[in-house]
């Protein structure tokens, strides 16, 4: 490790963009007025960690032009953001429907996503997927080339962009290239299923530094390099790979959240109003305890097992019927993929089944909402919840597990957390569960509901301390403190 100042100017490259432009009421020919477009800010963990850095230091962010008006408001694909502030440049990469299908709905989310979440039965390797993944990575690399000089600093984000670093490296041999892989890295026996294992590793190893959330993912990555690339030399103790005449440092650097931001928003929230607004119809009793789940409708998140665990608990403990309501806040995601559409249907049907089984005239066991919530409302909802259930089959980190305890500013709240989420290796104080163990999830929820005050407070304090130690500002600093001398 070497201490290095943050680069003055940086190029960040990610699939998702931090700001997108949509037409307010249809495309406009000729000069565009402010009222013709609406701007929305992304809410994901990656963008909220990196946007403050870019605002403070300037530079360029390269990302997919996913908004309908994105290219129309840009000049040469570039807009100044945040709107009205213009602290840094956003270089947008427009993609055709065919490219999006093959690269995003295809290779990224039907090969790499299930592979890395060790769910290989869901992998589908249509030949066009790889073709488009390569082509789009080339497009991103072109965009990077167009905005960089010889020795610039480029930071690639996530599994959408495994190949672009190699292409950029050829054009910019003196640049410093970093990558952060936000999702899990699979065990070598699982990585063997990847039809393009060598190419994926070759692309990534063009970087000077590759970051993962945990030491487990680092160790697995190094073992995959060792078994897949005979030309590479791996120094496991130092976390360095020597390959193709260069060295890559592979580091564990857990991402966190903007702790103070969550705390402030939760403190400012009018919790009674949040309850009324979000849960008014389904949970009219303002005093019933709330158990909360918040996630994208992704099969890695373990939602059906959680619903089955609720069923199990209410069956085993009839006295807990009417004692709390489970609120599932869900977001639709990747709906161009049939598996995701089916998953949503299954979740909704399962919730209906459990509600039909246990509902009474004045109690709905599970409230389900797909409403888009502002971060203010979401942080308020976390504060309202007595228990949060975060039980993914696999997760790189899982930032809901960070946000929930941070938002419990009243000193009250308990977290049930999957032992297979990256967060479980970083956070202290959660009740951990195996996400496939339905009876075990039910037991942990029962325990969370019945913790005595001292233990509940002690666990929450430990959670809050461990989350604070991983604040996203440290993530950025740690990433740049590593690299070649
Ligand atoms: O966890 C990986 C990730 O890419 C996150 O960065 C992001 O929040 C999430 O998945 C959303 O996925 P998508 O960009 O496909 O909507």
Strand order of the largest sheet: 5-6-4-1-7-8-9-12-11-10
**Percent range for helical residues?**
40-55%
Cofactors, ions, other ligands = 6-O-phosphono-beta-D-fructofuranose
User: Into which percentage range does the β-strand content fall?
Assistant: 15-25%
What's the number of helices? Answer: 17
Radius of gyration computed on alpha carbons: 23 Å
Overall residue-averaged pLDDT value: 95
Sheet/helix structural class: alpha/beta
Which residue ranges are poorly predicted, with pLDDT under 50 across at least 5 consecutive positions? none
Gross morphology is: globular
* Major beta sheet summary: 10 strands, mixed
Using DSSP, what is the number of strands? 18
Distance between the termini: 9 Å
